[in-house]
Protein backbone atom coordinates (compact mmCIF):
# COMPACT_ATOMS: atom_id res chain seq x y z
CA UNK A 1 0.00 0.00 0.00
CA UNK A 2 2.88 2.28 0.86
CA UNK A 3 4.37 1.70 -2.55
CA UNK A 4 1.16 2.64 -4.34
CA UNK A 5 1.13 5.83 -2.32
CA UNK A 6 4.69 6.66 -3.37
CA UNK A 7 4.03 6.02 -7.04
CA UNK A 8 0.97 8.23 -6.95
CA UNK A 9 2.98 10.99 -5.32
CA UNK A 10 5.75 10.79 -7.95
CA UNK A 11 3.20 10.77 -10.76
CA UNK A 12 1.37 13.72 -9.23
CA UNK A 13 4.56 15.78 -8.93
CA UNK A 14 5.50 15.03 -12.56
CA UNK A 15 2.09 16.18 -13.76
CA UNK A 16 2.30 19.27 -11.58
CA UNK A 17 5.72 20.22 -12.97
CA UNK A 18 4.68 19.53 -16.54
CA UNK A 19 1.52 21.59 -16.19
CA UNK A 20 3.50 24.55 -14.89
CA UNK A 21 4.96 25.01 -18.37
CA UNK A 22 2.66 27.64 -19.80
CA UNK A 23 3.12 28.64 -23.43
CA UNK A 24 1.12 31.80 -22.91
CA UNK A 25 3.67 33.30 -20.53
CA UNK A 26 7.32 34.01 -21.22
CA UNK A 27 9.98 31.80 -19.65
CA UNK A 28 12.16 32.62 -16.62
CA UNK A 29 15.16 34.82 -17.30
CA UNK A 30 18.55 34.55 -15.64
CA UNK A 31 19.66 38.04 -14.57
CA UNK A 32 16.79 39.86 -16.29
CA UNK A 33 18.61 43.18 -16.15
CA UNK A 34 20.94 41.75 -18.80
CA UNK A 35 17.95 41.21 -21.07
CA UNK A 36 15.83 44.24 -20.46
CA UNK A 37 16.87 47.43 -22.08
CA UNK A 38 17.61 50.53 -20.03
CA UNK A 39 16.77 52.66 -23.02
CA UNK A 40 13.33 52.63 -24.60
CA UNK A 41 12.54 49.53 -26.55
CA UNK A 42 10.70 49.86 -29.84
CA UNK A 43 6.93 50.05 -29.25
CA UNK A 44 7.32 49.81 -25.47
CA UNK A 45 5.29 51.67 -22.91
CA UNK A 46 7.01 54.59 -21.30
CA UNK A 47 6.02 56.97 -18.56
CA UNK A 48 8.25 59.64 -20.07
CA UNK A 49 5.56 60.67 -22.52
CA UNK A 50 2.10 61.99 -21.89
CA UNK A 51 0.31 59.24 -23.79
CA UNK A 52 2.53 56.55 -22.28
CA UNK A 53 3.95 55.29 -25.58
CA UNK A 54 7.52 55.06 -26.81
CA UNK A 55 6.38 55.44 -30.41
CA UNK A 56 5.63 59.14 -30.82
CA UNK A 57 4.29 61.01 -33.81
CA UNK A 58 6.64 63.59 -35.26
CA UNK A 59 6.01 67.15 -34.13
CA UNK A 60 3.53 68.95 -36.39
CA UNK A 61 5.22 70.65 -39.28
CA UNK A 62 8.41 68.60 -39.12
CA UNK A 63 9.64 65.94 -41.52
CA UNK A 64 12.24 63.25 -41.01
CA UNK A 65 15.63 63.37 -42.68
CA UNK A 66 15.55 62.44 -46.34
CA UNK A 67 11.78 62.81 -46.55
CA UNK A 68 10.51 64.45 -49.72
CA UNK A 69 7.21 66.25 -49.62
CA UNK A 70 4.50 65.76 -52.20
CA UNK A 71 2.68 68.92 -53.11
CA UNK A 72 -0.36 67.77 -55.05
CA UNK A 73 -3.38 67.71 -52.81
CA UNK A 74 -5.59 64.72 -52.12
CA UNK A 75 -8.61 65.67 -54.22
CA UNK A 76 -10.05 65.11 -57.66
CA UNK A 77 -8.45 68.37 -58.81
CA UNK A 78 -5.06 67.28 -57.40
CA UNK A 79 -5.42 63.94 -59.17
CA UNK A 80 -6.10 65.61 -62.51
CA UNK A 81 -3.16 67.97 -62.02
CA UNK A 82 -0.79 65.13 -61.15
CA UNK A 83 -2.05 63.12 -64.10
CA UNK A 84 -1.27 65.97 -66.49
CA UNK A 85 1.90 67.46 -65.04
CA UNK A 86 3.75 65.12 -62.68
CA UNK A 87 6.78 63.44 -64.23
CA UNK A 88 8.89 60.61 -62.89
CA UNK A 89 12.41 61.51 -61.68
CA UNK A 90 13.74 57.98 -62.35
CA UNK A 91 16.83 57.55 -64.50
CA UNK A 92 17.29 54.79 -67.07
CA UNK A 93 19.20 52.61 -64.57
CA UNK A 94 16.24 52.58 -62.17
CA UNK A 95 13.80 51.96 -64.98
CA UNK A 96 15.67 48.91 -66.23
CA UNK A 97 16.19 47.39 -62.78
CA UNK A 98 13.82 44.74 -61.45
CA UNK A 99 13.24 46.59 -58.17
CA UNK A 100 9.88 47.85 -59.34
CA UNK A 101 8.68 44.33 -60.02
CA UNK A 102 9.93 43.12 -56.64
CA UNK A 103 7.98 45.86 -54.88
CA UNK A 104 4.90 45.35 -57.06
CA UNK A 105 4.94 41.65 -56.15
CA UNK A 106 4.77 42.57 -52.48
CA UNK A 107 2.40 45.52 -52.38
CA UNK A 108 0.11 45.36 -55.41
CA UNK A 109 -0.12 41.75 -56.54
CA UNK A 110 -2.78 40.69 -54.01
CA UNK A 111 -5.43 42.83 -55.70
CA UNK A 112 -4.10 43.93 -59.11
CA UNK A 113 -2.73 40.52 -60.05
CA UNK A 114 0.68 39.52 -61.37
CA UNK A 115 -0.05 40.91 -64.83
CA UNK A 116 -2.06 43.94 -63.75
CA UNK A 117 -5.35 42.56 -65.05
CA UNK A 118 -7.09 43.18 -61.73
CA UNK A 119 -7.39 39.47 -60.93
CA UNK A 120 -5.26 39.10 -57.81
CA UNK A 121 -5.68 36.47 -55.15
CA UNK A 122 -7.99 38.67 -53.06
CA UNK A 123 -10.20 39.37 -56.08
CA UNK A 124 -10.27 35.69 -57.01
CA UNK A 125 -11.44 34.83 -53.51
CA UNK A 126 -14.03 37.64 -53.70
CA UNK A 127 -12.60 39.44 -50.68
CA UNK A 128 -11.97 42.56 -52.69
CA UNK A 129 -14.05 43.45 -55.72
CA UNK A 130 -14.01 46.04 -58.44
CA UNK A 131 -10.30 46.08 -59.15
CA UNK A 132 -9.98 47.34 -62.73
CA UNK A 133 -7.52 46.06 -65.27
CA UNK A 134 -4.81 48.63 -66.03
CA UNK A 135 -5.81 48.26 -69.67
CA UNK A 136 -9.25 49.78 -69.05
CA UNK A 137 -8.08 52.92 -67.30
CA UNK A 138 -6.43 56.05 -68.59
CA UNK A 139 -3.38 56.34 -66.33
CA UNK A 140 -0.10 58.20 -66.50
CA UNK A 141 2.97 57.81 -64.31
CA UNK A 142 1.88 60.95 -62.48
CA UNK A 143 -1.61 59.63 -61.76
CA UNK A 144 -0.25 56.24 -60.64
CA UNK A 145 2.13 57.95 -58.24
CA UNK A 146 -0.69 60.14 -56.95
CA UNK A 147 -2.93 57.13 -56.29
CA UNK A 148 -0.12 55.18 -54.59
CA UNK A 149 0.48 58.14 -52.31
CA UNK A 150 -3.11 58.97 -51.36
CA UNK A 151 -5.12 55.94 -52.38
CA UNK A 152 -8.27 56.15 -54.49
CA UNK A 153 -11.76 54.89 -53.65
CA UNK A 154 -11.32 51.43 -52.13
CA UNK A 155 -7.53 51.48 -52.42
CA UNK A 156 -5.70 52.83 -49.42
CA UNK A 157 -2.58 54.95 -49.25
CA UNK A 158 0.71 53.07 -49.51
CA UNK A 159 2.88 56.04 -48.65
CA UNK A 160 3.87 54.63 -45.30
CA UNK A 161 5.04 51.31 -46.72
CA UNK A 162 6.84 52.70 -49.77
CA UNK A 163 9.24 55.62 -49.90
CA UNK A 164 8.85 58.23 -52.61
CA UNK A 165 11.54 56.62 -54.74
CA UNK A 166 9.99 53.18 -54.33
CA UNK A 167 6.59 54.52 -55.35
CA UNK A 168 8.12 55.85 -58.57
CA UNK A 169 9.69 52.45 -59.22
CA UNK A 170 6.29 50.80 -58.82
CA UNK A 171 4.59 53.43 -61.01
CA UNK A 172 7.11 52.68 -63.73
CA UNK A 173 6.48 48.95 -63.47
CA UNK A 174 2.69 49.48 -63.59
CA UNK A 175 3.06 51.32 -66.91
CA UNK A 176 5.24 48.48 -68.16
CA UNK A 177 2.48 45.99 -67.23
CA UNK A 178 -0.17 48.19 -68.88
CA UNK A 179 1.81 48.21 -72.12
CA UNK A 180 1.96 44.40 -72.04
CA UNK A 181 -1.76 43.85 -71.42
CA UNK B 1 -20.59 -9.58 -14.56
CA UNK B 2 -21.82 -10.67 -17.94
CA UNK B 3 -23.16 -7.21 -18.55
CA UNK B 4 -19.71 -5.71 -18.55
CA UNK B 5 -18.34 -4.71 -21.93
CA UNK B 6 -21.41 -5.88 -23.77
CA UNK B 7 -20.71 -4.14 -27.05
CA UNK B 8 -23.77 -5.57 -28.71
CA UNK B 9 -26.22 -4.08 -26.29
CA UNK B 10 -29.40 -3.00 -27.96
CA UNK B 11 -29.44 0.43 -26.40
CA UNK B 12 -25.95 1.20 -27.71
CA UNK B 13 -26.89 0.08 -31.20
CA UNK B 14 -29.99 2.20 -31.08
CA UNK B 15 -28.10 5.22 -29.87
CA UNK B 16 -25.41 4.88 -32.52
CA UNK B 17 -27.84 4.44 -35.39
CA UNK B 18 -29.87 7.37 -34.15
CA UNK B 19 -26.77 9.56 -34.15
CA UNK B 20 -25.77 8.37 -37.60
CA UNK B 21 -29.18 8.90 -39.12
CA UNK B 22 -29.40 12.32 -37.50
CA UNK B 23 -26.09 13.38 -38.98
CA UNK B 24 -26.85 12.09 -42.45
CA UNK B 25 -30.34 13.48 -42.53
CA UNK B 26 -28.98 16.93 -41.70
CA UNK B 27 -26.35 16.92 -44.43
CA UNK B 28 -28.77 15.59 -47.02
CA UNK B 29 -31.25 18.25 -46.04
CA UNK B 30 -28.58 20.92 -46.51
CA UNK B 31 -27.72 19.52 -49.90
CA UNK B 32 -31.34 19.73 -50.91
CA UNK B 33 -31.64 23.25 -49.63
CA UNK B 34 -28.65 24.71 -51.48
CA UNK B 35 -29.74 24.13 -55.11
CA UNK B 36 -33.23 25.22 -54.20
CA UNK B 37 -31.93 28.62 -53.18
CA UNK B 38 -29.77 28.90 -56.28
CA UNK B 39 -32.55 28.14 -58.74
CA UNK B 40 -34.91 30.62 -57.13
CA UNK B 41 -36.13 32.95 -59.86
CA UNK B 42 -34.97 36.51 -59.21
CA UNK B 43 -37.76 39.02 -58.96
CA UNK B 44 -37.90 42.07 -61.20
CA UNK B 45 -35.04 41.29 -63.57
CA UNK B 46 -36.37 43.96 -65.95
CA UNK B 47 -35.01 42.44 -69.10
CA UNK B 48 -31.35 42.27 -68.04
CA UNK B 49 -29.20 39.25 -67.27
CA UNK B 50 -28.31 39.27 -63.56
CA UNK B 51 -25.43 36.81 -64.02
CA UNK B 52 -23.66 39.02 -66.56
CA UNK B 53 -24.64 41.93 -64.37
CA UNK B 54 -22.86 40.43 -61.40
CA UNK B 55 -19.66 40.09 -63.41
CA UNK B 56 -19.90 43.70 -64.59
CA UNK B 57 -20.80 44.90 -61.11
CA UNK B 58 -17.85 43.12 -59.52
CA UNK B 59 -15.31 44.46 -62.00
CA UNK B 60 -16.67 48.01 -62.40
CA UNK B 61 -18.82 49.07 -59.48
CA UNK B 62 -17.76 47.02 -56.46
CA UNK B 63 -14.69 49.15 -55.79
CA UNK B 64 -17.01 51.83 -54.43
CA UNK B 65 -20.47 50.28 -54.13
CA UNK B 66 -21.83 47.39 -52.15
CA UNK B 67 -25.26 45.88 -52.66
CA UNK B 68 -26.20 46.39 -49.03
CA UNK B 69 -24.53 49.01 -46.96
CA UNK B 70 -22.73 52.19 -47.78
CA UNK B 71 -19.13 52.15 -49.02
CA UNK B 72 -17.47 55.02 -50.89
CA UNK B 73 -20.76 55.32 -52.78
CA UNK B 74 -24.30 54.45 -51.69
CA UNK B 75 -25.76 50.95 -51.48
CA UNK B 76 -27.16 49.81 -54.81
CA UNK B 77 -29.66 47.06 -54.04
CA UNK B 78 -33.02 48.00 -55.55
CA UNK B 79 -31.62 51.15 -57.17
CA UNK B 80 -34.07 50.71 -60.06
CA UNK B 81 -36.97 51.33 -57.69
CA UNK B 82 -35.48 54.60 -56.52
CA UNK B 83 -34.24 56.11 -59.79
CA UNK B 84 -35.46 56.46 -63.33
CA UNK B 85 -33.61 54.24 -65.83
CA UNK B 86 -32.78 57.06 -68.25
CA UNK B 87 -31.38 59.06 -65.35
CA UNK B 88 -29.18 56.10 -64.36
CA UNK B 89 -27.80 55.75 -67.91
CA UNK B 90 -26.83 59.42 -67.93
CA UNK B 91 -25.38 59.27 -64.43
CA UNK B 92 -23.25 56.20 -65.09
CA UNK B 93 -22.00 57.43 -68.47
CA UNK B 94 -20.91 60.76 -67.09
CA UNK B 95 -22.02 61.87 -63.63
CA UNK B 96 -20.03 65.12 -63.75
CA UNK B 97 -22.03 66.37 -66.79
CA UNK B 98 -25.29 65.54 -65.08
CA UNK B 99 -24.27 67.51 -61.99
CA UNK B 100 -23.17 70.44 -64.11
CA UNK B 101 -26.48 70.46 -65.98
CA UNK B 102 -28.13 71.33 -62.68
CA UNK B 103 -30.11 68.12 -62.20
CA UNK B 104 -31.46 68.35 -58.64
CA UNK B 105 -31.20 64.62 -57.91
CA UNK B 106 -27.64 64.46 -59.20
CA UNK B 107 -26.50 67.36 -57.04
CA UNK B 108 -28.18 65.80 -54.02
CA UNK B 109 -26.43 62.44 -54.55
CA UNK B 110 -23.10 64.20 -55.07
CA UNK B 111 -23.44 66.12 -51.83
CA UNK B 112 -24.73 63.18 -49.82
CA UNK B 113 -21.55 61.26 -50.66
CA UNK B 114 -18.96 63.76 -49.46
CA UNK B 115 -18.67 65.28 -52.95
CA UNK B 116 -16.62 62.37 -54.25
CA UNK B 117 -16.97 62.31 -58.02
CA UNK B 118 -17.98 58.97 -59.51
CA UNK B 119 -15.74 57.67 -62.28
CA UNK B 120 -17.45 57.98 -65.69
CA UNK B 121 -18.16 54.70 -67.46
CA UNK B 122 -18.75 55.60 -71.13
CA UNK B 123 -17.63 52.08 -72.10
CA UNK B 124 -20.74 50.51 -70.51
CA UNK B 125 -23.56 50.14 -73.05
CA UNK B 126 -27.20 50.57 -72.03
CA UNK B 127 -27.50 46.79 -72.25
CA UNK B 128 -24.61 46.41 -69.80
CA UNK B 129 -26.27 48.83 -67.43
CA UNK B 130 -29.54 46.90 -67.74
CA UNK B 131 -27.64 43.76 -66.74
CA UNK B 132 -26.16 45.52 -63.73
CA UNK B 133 -29.58 46.86 -62.74
CA UNK B 134 -30.98 43.35 -63.05
CA UNK B 135 -28.28 42.14 -60.68
CA UNK B 136 -28.91 44.91 -58.18
CA UNK B 137 -32.65 44.22 -58.32
CA UNK B 138 -32.22 40.65 -57.12
CA UNK B 139 -33.82 40.05 -53.76
CA UNK B 140 -31.24 39.49 -51.07
CA UNK B 141 -30.72 35.76 -50.72
CA UNK B 142 -31.49 34.55 -47.23
CA UNK B 143 -28.25 33.50 -45.65
CA UNK B 144 -28.24 29.71 -45.92
CA UNK B 145 -28.82 28.32 -42.46
CA UNK B 146 -25.56 26.91 -41.12
CA UNK B 147 -26.83 23.35 -41.45
CA UNK B 148 -23.75 21.72 -42.97
CA UNK B 149 -21.60 23.16 -40.19
CA UNK B 150 -24.07 22.08 -37.53
CA UNK B 151 -24.21 18.58 -38.96
CA UNK B 152 -20.44 18.35 -39.02
CA UNK B 153 -20.43 19.56 -35.43
CA UNK B 154 -22.80 16.86 -34.27
CA UNK B 155 -20.94 14.10 -36.05
CA UNK B 156 -17.60 15.12 -34.58
CA UNK B 157 -19.21 15.38 -31.18
CA UNK B 158 -20.69 11.89 -31.56
CA UNK B 159 -17.23 10.65 -32.50
CA UNK B 160 -15.76 12.11 -29.32
CA UNK B 161 -18.58 10.71 -27.24
CA UNK B 162 -18.28 7.17 -28.57
CA UNK B 163 -14.50 7.28 -28.11
CA UNK B 164 -15.00 8.27 -24.51
CA UNK B 165 -17.60 5.55 -24.10
CA UNK B 166 -15.21 2.90 -25.42
CA UNK B 167 -12.40 4.12 -23.18
CA UNK B 168 -14.69 4.16 -20.18
CA UNK B 169 -15.89 0.64 -20.93
CA UNK B 170 -12.29 -0.55 -21.21
CA UNK B 171 -11.38 1.00 -17.89
CA UNK B 172 -14.39 -0.68 -16.31
CA UNK B 173 -13.34 -4.06 -17.77
CA UNK B 174 -9.84 -3.62 -16.36
CA UNK B 175 -11.22 -2.80 -12.96
CA UNK B 176 -13.48 -5.84 -13.05
CA UNK B 177 -10.51 -8.05 -14.00
CA UNK B 178 -8.55 -6.78 -11.01
CA UNK B 179 -11.47 -7.46 -8.70
CA UNK B 180 -11.94 -10.89 -10.25
CA UNK B 181 -8.29 -11.82 -9.71
CA UNK B 182 -8.58 -10.79 -6.11
CA UNK B 183 -11.75 -12.85 -5.69
CA UNK B 184 -10.23 -15.89 -7.43
CA UNK B 185 -7.23 -15.86 -5.16
CA UNK B 186 -9.54 -15.63 -2.16
CA UNK B 187 -11.64 -18.54 -3.42
CA UNK B 188 -8.55 -20.63 -4.09
CA UNK B 189 -7.27 -19.96 -0.60
CA UNK B 190 -10.64 -21.00 0.80
CA UNK B 191 -10.70 -24.16 -1.34
CA UNK B 192 -7.19 -25.03 -0.20
CA UNK B 193 -8.23 -24.52 3.41
CA UNK B 194 -11.35 -26.66 2.96
CA UNK B 195 -9.28 -29.47 1.42
CA UNK B 196 -6.85 -29.26 4.30
CA UNK B 197 -3.89 -28.28 2.17
CA UNK B 198 -1.50 -26.19 4.12
CA UNK B 199 -0.23 -23.31 2.06
CA UNK B 200 3.41 -23.00 2.97
CA UNK B 201 4.13 -19.56 4.37
CA UNK B 202 6.84 -17.65 2.50
CA UNK B 203 10.27 -18.39 3.79
CA UNK B 204 11.79 -15.25 5.36
CA UNK B 205 13.84 -13.91 2.53
CA UNK B 206 16.32 -11.08 2.51
CA UNK B 207 14.58 -7.97 1.16
CA UNK B 208 15.81 -6.79 -2.22
CA UNK B 209 16.77 -3.38 -0.89
CA UNK B 210 19.01 -4.77 1.81
CA UNK B 211 20.68 -7.05 -0.73
CA UNK B 212 21.26 -4.06 -2.97
CA UNK B 213 22.90 -2.03 -0.22
CA UNK B 214 25.24 -4.93 0.62
CA UNK B 215 26.48 -5.15 -3.01
CA UNK B 216 28.95 -2.26 -3.20
CA UNK B 217 29.55 -2.57 -6.94
CA UNK B 218 25.88 -2.20 -7.71
CA UNK B 219 25.65 0.81 -5.42
CA UNK B 220 28.59 2.47 -7.17
CA UNK B 221 27.21 1.87 -10.67
CA UNK B 222 23.77 3.03 -9.62
CA UNK B 223 25.03 6.22 -8.03
CA UNK B 224 27.22 7.08 -11.04
CA UNK B 225 24.24 6.52 -13.28
CA UNK B 226 22.02 8.61 -11.04
CA UNK B 227 24.54 11.49 -10.97
CA UNK B 228 24.92 11.47 -14.75
CA UNK B 229 21.18 11.36 -15.27
CA UNK B 230 20.49 14.19 -12.87
CA UNK B 231 23.35 16.21 -14.40
CA UNK B 232 21.72 15.73 -17.79
CA UNK B 233 18.35 16.95 -16.61
CA UNK B 234 19.72 19.88 -14.61
CA UNK B 235 21.77 20.97 -17.63
CA UNK B 236 18.72 20.66 -19.84
CA UNK B 237 16.66 22.75 -17.46
CA UNK B 238 19.31 25.47 -17.11
CA UNK B 239 19.85 25.70 -20.85
CA UNK B 240 16.20 26.53 -21.51
CA UNK B 241 16.11 29.38 -18.99
CA UNK B 242 15.52 32.58 -20.93
CA UNK B 243 14.55 30.69 -24.10
CA UNK B 244 11.03 31.49 -25.23
CA UNK B 245 10.58 28.98 -28.01
CA UNK B 246 6.88 28.29 -28.73
CA UNK B 247 5.84 31.31 -26.68
CA UNK B 248 2.32 32.14 -27.87
CA UNK B 249 0.72 34.88 -25.79
CA UNK B 250 -2.90 35.93 -26.10
CA UNK B 251 -3.04 39.09 -28.20
CA UNK B 252 -5.59 41.88 -27.68
CA UNK B 253 -6.90 41.28 -31.21
CA UNK B 254 -6.97 37.70 -32.44
CA UNK B 255 -5.03 38.18 -35.68
CA UNK B 256 -4.82 35.02 -37.76
CA UNK B 257 -1.68 34.80 -39.90
CA UNK B 258 -3.23 31.68 -41.41
CA UNK B 259 -6.09 33.66 -42.96
CA UNK B 260 -3.99 36.62 -44.11
CA UNK B 261 -0.66 35.15 -45.19
CA UNK B 262 -1.86 31.59 -45.80
CA UNK B 263 -5.31 31.57 -47.37
CA UNK B 264 -5.11 35.02 -48.96
CA UNK B 265 -1.39 34.84 -49.78
CA UNK B 266 -0.65 38.38 -48.73
CA UNK B 267 3.10 38.92 -48.71
CA UNK B 268 4.66 39.17 -45.22
CA UNK B 269 6.31 42.42 -46.23
CA UNK B 270 3.02 44.01 -47.22
CA UNK B 271 2.28 44.56 -43.55
CA UNK B 272 5.77 44.20 -42.05
CA UNK B 273 7.18 46.61 -44.60
CA UNK B 274 9.84 47.91 -42.21
CA UNK B 275 11.63 44.54 -42.34
CA UNK B 276 12.97 45.53 -45.77
CA UNK B 277 14.53 48.77 -44.72
CA UNK B 278 15.02 48.89 -40.98
CA UNK B 279 16.46 47.15 -37.96
CA UNK B 280 13.02 46.39 -36.59
CA UNK B 281 10.49 44.35 -38.57
CA UNK B 282 7.78 46.59 -37.22
CA UNK B 283 4.33 45.93 -35.94
CA UNK B 284 2.11 47.18 -38.77
CA UNK B 285 0.37 50.42 -37.93
CA UNK B 286 -3.41 50.19 -38.10
CA UNK B 287 -3.68 52.22 -41.30
CA UNK B 288 -2.14 49.20 -43.04
CA UNK B 289 -4.97 47.02 -41.69
CA UNK B 290 -7.45 49.63 -42.88
CA UNK B 291 -6.08 49.49 -46.44
CA UNK B 292 -8.12 46.32 -46.77
CA UNK B 293 -10.47 46.34 -43.80
CA UNK B 294 -12.09 49.60 -44.79
CA UNK B 295 -13.83 47.35 -47.33
CA UNK B 296 -13.85 44.08 -45.45
CA UNK B 297 -16.02 44.68 -42.42
CA UNK B 298 -16.87 41.04 -41.85
CA UNK B 299 -15.41 37.69 -42.72
CA UNK B 300 -16.95 35.28 -45.21
CA UNK B 301 -18.97 32.32 -43.95
CA UNK B 302 -16.27 30.03 -45.30
CA UNK B 303 -13.60 31.63 -43.11
CA UNK B 304 -15.18 30.41 -39.91
CA UNK B 305 -13.77 27.23 -38.43
CA UNK B 306 -15.26 24.93 -35.79
CA UNK B 307 -12.90 26.53 -33.30
CA UNK B 308 -13.48 30.17 -34.22
CA UNK B 309 -16.90 31.27 -35.41
CA UNK B 310 -17.74 34.00 -37.90
CA UNK B 311 -19.09 36.11 -35.05
CA UNK B 312 -15.76 35.77 -33.26
CA UNK B 313 -13.78 36.96 -36.29
CA UNK B 314 -16.22 39.80 -36.96
CA UNK B 315 -15.72 40.92 -33.38
CA UNK B 316 -11.96 41.10 -34.00
CA UNK B 317 -12.51 43.39 -37.01
CA UNK B 318 -14.79 45.49 -34.84
CA UNK B 319 -11.98 45.78 -32.29
CA UNK B 320 -9.76 47.12 -35.08
CA UNK B 321 -12.43 49.69 -36.00
CA UNK B 322 -12.70 50.80 -32.38
CA UNK B 323 -8.93 51.14 -32.05
CA UNK B 324 -8.50 53.10 -35.25
CA UNK B 325 -11.69 55.13 -34.78
CA UNK B 326 -13.56 54.05 -37.90
CA UNK B 327 -17.28 54.65 -38.08
CA UNK B 328 -18.57 51.78 -40.19
CA UNK B 329 -22.00 53.31 -40.83
CA UNK B 330 -20.77 56.76 -41.88
CA UNK B 331 -17.59 55.41 -43.54
CA UNK B 332 -15.46 58.08 -41.88
CA UNK B 333 -12.83 58.27 -39.18
CA UNK B 334 -14.08 59.68 -35.91
CA UNK B 335 -10.62 60.73 -34.74
CA UNK B 336 -11.04 58.85 -31.47
CA UNK B 337 -8.25 56.29 -31.45
CA UNK B 338 -6.82 53.99 -28.86
CA UNK B 339 -3.56 52.04 -29.13
CA UNK B 340 -3.63 48.26 -29.45
CA UNK B 341 -1.36 46.75 -26.82
CA UNK B 342 0.14 43.92 -28.84
CA UNK B 343 2.20 41.52 -26.76
CA UNK B 344 5.71 41.26 -28.11
CA UNK B 345 6.77 37.69 -28.86
CA UNK B 346 10.24 37.83 -30.42
CA UNK B 347 12.53 39.83 -28.21
CA UNK B 348 16.29 39.60 -28.32
CA UNK B 349 18.17 40.56 -25.16
CA UNK B 350 19.50 44.08 -24.96
CA UNK B 351 23.11 42.93 -25.34
CA UNK B 352 22.76 41.60 -28.88
CA UNK B 353 22.33 43.55 -32.09
CA UNK B 354 20.12 42.22 -34.83
CA UNK B 355 19.09 43.96 -38.03
CA UNK B 356 16.16 42.79 -40.13
CA UNK B 357 17.02 44.67 -43.32
CA UNK B 358 20.47 43.06 -43.39
CA UNK B 359 18.91 39.60 -43.41
CA UNK B 360 15.80 40.31 -45.50
CA UNK B 361 17.09 42.70 -48.14
CA UNK B 362 20.85 42.11 -48.29
CA UNK B 363 20.93 38.36 -47.68
CA UNK B 364 17.52 37.81 -49.30
CA UNK B 365 16.40 35.30 -46.66
CA UNK B 366 12.81 34.12 -46.54
CA UNK B 367 10.94 35.25 -43.43
CA UNK B 368 10.06 31.59 -42.80
CA UNK B 369 13.73 30.66 -42.29
CA UNK B 370 13.65 32.17 -38.82
CA UNK B 371 9.94 32.62 -38.11
CA UNK B 372 8.74 29.21 -39.28
CA UNK B 373 5.61 28.44 -41.27
CA UNK B 374 3.80 31.55 -40.04
CA UNK B 375 1.27 31.25 -42.87
CA UNK B 376 -0.12 28.19 -41.08
CA UNK B 377 -0.32 29.75 -37.61
CA UNK B 378 -3.77 30.61 -36.35
CA UNK B 379 -2.10 31.93 -33.21
CA UNK B 380 1.34 33.43 -33.69
CA UNK B 381 4.18 31.84 -31.75
CA UNK B 382 7.95 31.97 -31.58
CA UNK B 383 9.30 29.30 -33.89
CA UNK B 384 13.06 29.55 -33.32
CA UNK B 385 14.82 29.41 -29.94
CA UNK B 386 16.67 32.69 -30.77
CA UNK B 387 19.71 31.47 -28.86
CA UNK B 388 23.26 32.33 -29.86
CA UNK B 389 23.93 28.72 -30.82
CA UNK B 390 21.03 28.91 -33.24
CA UNK B 391 22.37 32.13 -34.83
CA UNK B 392 25.89 30.75 -35.17
CA UNK B 393 24.66 27.49 -36.60
CA UNK B 394 22.87 29.30 -39.42
CA UNK B 395 25.83 31.60 -40.07
CA UNK B 396 28.04 28.53 -40.47
CA UNK B 397 25.68 26.81 -42.88
CA UNK B 398 24.40 29.65 -45.03
CA UNK B 399 26.18 30.52 -48.24
CA UNK B 400 26.41 34.20 -48.92
CA UNK B 401 24.73 35.43 -52.09
CA UNK B 402 27.76 36.80 -53.95
CA UNK B 403 26.61 36.98 -57.57
CA UNK B 404 25.63 40.38 -58.88
CA UNK B 405 27.53 42.16 -56.13
CA UNK B 406 30.41 43.76 -58.01
CA UNK B 407 31.20 46.21 -55.24
CA UNK B 408 32.52 43.42 -53.00
CA UNK B 409 33.92 41.24 -55.80
CA UNK B 410 37.56 41.77 -54.76
CA UNK B 411 37.13 40.95 -51.10
CA UNK B 412 34.96 37.98 -51.96
CA UNK B 413 37.68 36.66 -54.24
CA UNK B 414 40.38 37.13 -51.59
CA UNK B 415 38.34 35.41 -48.90
CA UNK B 416 37.50 32.53 -51.22
CA UNK B 417 41.21 32.06 -51.87
CA UNK B 418 42.04 32.26 -48.17
CA UNK B 419 39.57 29.56 -47.18
CA UNK B 420 39.98 27.59 -50.41
CA UNK B 421 36.25 27.43 -51.05
CA UNK B 422 34.00 28.46 -53.88
CA UNK B 423 31.07 29.65 -51.81
CA UNK B 424 31.65 31.65 -48.67
CA UNK B 425 29.46 31.13 -45.64
CA UNK B 426 28.35 34.00 -43.43
CA UNK B 427 30.77 32.70 -40.79
CA UNK B 428 33.73 32.97 -43.19
CA UNK B 429 32.71 36.54 -43.96
CA UNK B 430 33.17 37.39 -40.29
CA UNK B 431 29.74 36.35 -39.10
CA UNK B 432 31.24 34.71 -36.01
CA UNK B 433 33.14 37.72 -34.71
CA UNK B 434 31.89 38.75 -31.28
CA UNK B 435 31.84 42.42 -32.12
CA UNK B 436 29.51 41.91 -35.07
CA UNK B 437 26.57 41.37 -32.75
CA UNK B 438 27.76 42.24 -29.26
CA UNK B 439 28.98 45.76 -28.76
TrEMBL record, chain A:
Coiled-coil ranges (or none): none
UniProt keyword Heme present: yes
Residue ranges occupied by any Cytochrome c domain in the UniProt entry: 95-178
Alphabetic keyword roster: Heme, Iron, Metal-binding
Listed SUPFAM superfamilies: Cytochrome c
Pfam family, one: Cytochrome_CBB3
Stored PANTHER family: LIPOPROTEIN-RELATED (PTHR40394), QUINOL:CYTOCHROME C OXIDOREDUCTASE MEMBRANE PROTEIN (PTHR40394:SF2)
Classification of source organism: Bacteria, Pseudomonadati, Bacteroidota, Flavobacteriia, Flavobacteriales
Name by which UniProt lists this protein: Quinol:cytochrome c oxidoreductase monoheme cytochrome subunit
Native source organism of the sequence: Flavobacterium granuli
Record GO terms (molecular function): electron transfer activity; heme binding; metal ion binding
From TrEMBL, chain B:
Coiled coil regions in record: none
Domain Cytochrome c as annotated: residue spans: 48-140
Keyword tags: Electron transport, Heme, Iron, Membrane, Metal-binding, Signal, Transmembrane, Transmembrane helix, Transport
UniProt key word Membrane: yes
GO molecular function: electron transfer activity; heme binding; metal ion binding
Residue intervals passing through the bilayer: 165-184, 217-238
Pfam (any one): Cytochrom_C
Top-rank taxon, per record: Bacteria
Signal sequence region: 1-30
Protein name: Quinol:cytochrome c oxidoreductase pentaheme cytochrome subunit
Organism the protein comes from: Flavobacterium granuli
